[in-house]
Amino acid sequence: MNVKELDPESSPQAAFGARLRRLREERGWSQEELGTRMGYSGTHLSSVETGRKMPTLRLARRADLALGTDDSFEREWREMRQGALLEGFPEYVEHEGRAAEIRLYEVGVIPGLLQTPEYATVLAESAVKRGAIASEQAQERVAVVTERQAALLRTPPPLLFVVLDEGCIRRPIGKPAVMEAQLKRLIEFAELPNTVLQIAPFEMGIRRPFNLPITVLTLPDRSLMSYAESAQRGHLDREIASVLPMLTAYHQLQAEAPSQAESVAAIHKVRKGSP
Hints:
CATH superfamily of the largest domain: Endonuclease Chain A
CATH topology of the largest domain: Endonuclease, Chain A
Oligomer: single chain
Shape: globular
Helix content: 40-55%
Number of strands: 6
Order of helices and strands: HHHHHHEHHEHHEEEEHH
């Protein structure tokens, strides 16, 4: 693809790539030279410059450092990401990335923090097929999953408490190999020293306090925040009067759900095809 074939007006992703190339060429650098300065291959930068690959936050920050553009590429990336994600979600991710404790309850699908790249890709591509998002937005959604998971590798890591409705491990997403790898990932997650994983079985019935997905964060200053989504946007709640009862209900859910050992055994049964 040559310069004349690029259209920076076609999408924010294309505009990001066109600007990256323009600044690189102004300095007389080849893609390989800029790639060396940024820690990427020239082939990877070519894909970003031509809009074939969605830039990540890491790439945007390294572009700012290598090109001396302050944080302009990072700001451009964040503006681009806003269009790919549910309103309110990027703000939540910022808090999630520094939370001391994260409590999740999910219904239907594995939550992003535990998804394999293949599982996340199937979900994103299905949204494209439904016409809900564009293909470049799907790429960004998968990139955000990776970014969120990387943020949990900080020192010290946050405590993660996850309760999944049984439907999350039984609902097939993608081909059998995708689900097999995803279930294996759940078992590996349960083995980490800073995590607790429980499966809420169908027979819990009305003893389950939540009917919709919910997240409760404990921030470093021990303040609480909850997050939930509607079809239109994500909702953050910092009011202790409403978040504290949610935390109480989450503890009740954990008390009612089977132990982590029993939950891992249930995942193994699903992997073997047992009812």
